[in-house]
Design goal:
single chain, 129 residues, alpha+beta, 3 strands, ER-Golgi transport
Length: 129
């Protein structure tokens, strides 16, 4: 259960299974990047944003890993407007902050799916829904 998703949100339920597969594939890429990251210098080790992990005709998949090895994956539709790395970094910073707030709840059990209303509101805000 090490890489089990704690939260998944899609715009359409039809694409959820396909995106679930792509997210799991991206987690494997994140694991590879983290394992080869032992060669990184001290200044680079603070970089949490892993950049573009996977690119298809339909989607761009970006990754982010915290210092505690919590992984975030964001899947963006390719036909949408061009997204700069700084925009994606801001998305991950918002998600990381919302995640920290959600797990700091004394009633949250680590490893359980995230069911925080504030976390869900942040994700919906990022998605524009």
């Amino acid at each position: 259960m090490k890489n089990s998703p704690l939260y998944i949100k899609c715009l359409s339920e039809e694409s959820e299974v396909e995106l679930h597969y792509k997210v799991h594939t991206s987690i494997d890429i994140i694991e590879e990047k983290l394992n080869t990251g032992n060669k990184i210098t001290a200044t680079d080790s603070r970089e949490l944003f892993l950049g573009l992990l996977h690119f298809t005709d339909e989607h761009k998949i970006f990754g982010y890993a915290t210092n505690t090895k919590v992984k975030f994956v964001v899947v963006l539709q390719t036909p949408s407007t061009t997204v700069r790395d700084n925009d994606v970094r801001m998305i991950f910073r918002k998600l990381h902050t919302a995640y920290c707030n959600a797990i700091c709840n004394p009633f949250y059990i680590p490893g359980d799916p995230i069911e925080s209303k504030s976390f869900d509101a942040t994700v919906k805000d990022i998605m524009g829904i």
